[in-house]
Amino acid sequence: MTNTAADRSMARRVSVRRALGVLGALGVALPLALGSTAPASAHDALSSATPAADSTVTEALTTVALGFSDELLALGGDTNSFAIQVLDEGDRHYESGCVTVDGATATTEVASGPAGTYEVLWQVVSSDGHPTSGSYTFTYQPSEPGPQSAMTTAPQCGDDWAGTAASVSAPGEAVETPAPDASADAPVAEETPAPGEDGGDPASDGTALPLWAIVLGGIAGLGLLAAIIALTLRRTRRFPGEGDPGA
Predict the structure, then answer these.
(1) Strand 56-57 relative to strand 131-140: parallel, antiparallel, unpaired?
(2) Which of 120, 113, 116, 137 has its CA nearest to residue 61?
(3) Which end of the chain has fewer beta carbons closer than 10 Å to its terminal beta carbon, N or C?
(4) What would the pLDDT profile of 109-160 be if each residue is shown by its tens digit?
(5) How many whole angstroms separate alpha carbon 235 and alpha carbon 247?
(6) pTM of the model as a whole
(7) How far, in Å, CA of 124 to CA of 81, rounded?
(8) What domains appear along the chain, each with residue ranges and CATH number?
């Protein structure tokens, strides 16, 4: 009996020690957990969106506006750390690449693409100075769908984007690739001199003869004339009485 009572007492002490150990571990882990989540809770959260998450849009899209729980941090209007991207199911971009910040609202221009599911990805700088990001989807079912974007990379602010004619194409239409600029490798065409620039006289048809050709032509003409004269004189001297029977 004594041994049984001692064993029970020892078991109780072990149980109490284990319980105290668990409570102590919880006491250490709880402040750590709270401390790790405190900075995240300070970030501004997305409170509203146009178009809204999981909504169906039937009107033509021109902008995407995101509202947050506090004013966003855009010092001096600098929005280089802000981004709003709108992609279709083929990962083609429809945003302009420029983000406008007004208090707690961030806005970007978008193009109206074909019907389908679109994803909005965003990144902003919270009022506490830390960047935060997220995403959501919506469905686009307009009565007159827009053309398909040709952009598979996010545009930078100021570049051509899905709203420009060069960046959109009809569904199924091949996107034209601009021809490479070969101006540096192409041979330079020689300019044809204007009539009379080389010293020759212009011909009646607007072409010019070289000076040396004109000189050679004159010499040849004079030689031919001299030959005709010499031949005539020779015939006269050789046959003075041609046609006379007594000659």
Answers:
(1) parallel
(2) 113
(3) N
(4) 999 999 999 999 999 999 999 999 999 999 999 999 999 999 999 999 999 9
(5) 16
(6) 0.54
(7) 7
(8) 46-169 (2.60.40.1220), 199-237 (no CATH)
